[in-house]
Amino acid sequence: MRSTTRILCGLATVAALTVAPTAYAAENPYERGPDPTESSIEASRGSFAVSQTSVSSLAVIGFGGGTIYYPTSTAQGTFGAVAISPGFTATQSSIAWIGPRLASQGFVVFTIDTNTIYDQPDSRGDQLLAALDYLTQRSDVRSRIDTSRLAVAGHSMGGGGSLEAAQDRPSLQAAVPLAPWNTQKSWSSLRVPTFIIGGESDTVAPVASHSIPFYTSIPASAEKAYMELDNASHFFPNTANTTMAKYTISWLKRFVDNDTRYEQFLCPAPDDRTISDYRDTCPHA
């Protein structure tokens, strides 16, 4: 009986040692890519090779088509996804640089065109959600996407639209409004982790009447941050911007991928000379 007991105990110990690494890995199963550094999030490309595919407006319903950028390899598993809207009178070409930059860090990215270049923020919000639905249900890359890990972003009225989308679909994991414009100033019912980036010298959507009131109105329990780029105009998202990119990557990694390795870049507040103001609730690890 004692021998049998010792054998059973030994088997239990081996089993525990065998499952422990799996259990440990399951604590953060959405990590993608190597440990981040300041250099890696500032780089114009991350560790993933990227492919892209065009989506015709004739093939979709609810938005104007666009371009999908995605990691070529799925060796590490599926990816979170983000849809990004341009601003008033603009097309996806105005934000095209963002697509491959984010995708190379381990996301599927959909830069969209809107139904018309004059669509208002509420319409752009609906179109961002329609784009995510297409991306996860009908697109050629849908098998690469984890449908529980989705986000929205946008510039100007597209940024206002990303707030609309986040308010309408609380299951989203993150929102990143860029120089957002919207006539609605209160977002007290928004619960999605939201990172607002404004331009200090923005005269189209001045931060005092747009970005800052938006940020202030979002409950702290939602997780939020506000970053103001030093001397930046309304159009800072239209050309490659390292500061915008590195903290957008960090926010998406932290909340879409639940990757706490990126929390170090968000909290405490970044000490960066290109940032004139930074406010946050500090992500909860």
TrEMBL record:
InterPro entries recorded: AB_hydrolase_fold, FrsA_esterase, PET_hydrolase/cutinase-like
First and last residue of the signal peptide: 1-25
Entry-linked SUPFAM superfamilies: alpha/beta-Hydrolases
Domain called PET hydrolase/cutinase-like: residue spans: 25-283
Single Gene Ontology MF annotation: carboxylic ester hydrolase activity
Annotated keywords: Hydrolase, Signal
UniProt similarity note: Belongs to the AB hydrolase superfamily.
Name of the protein in its database record: Putative lipase
Organism: Amycolatopsis decaplanina DSM 44594
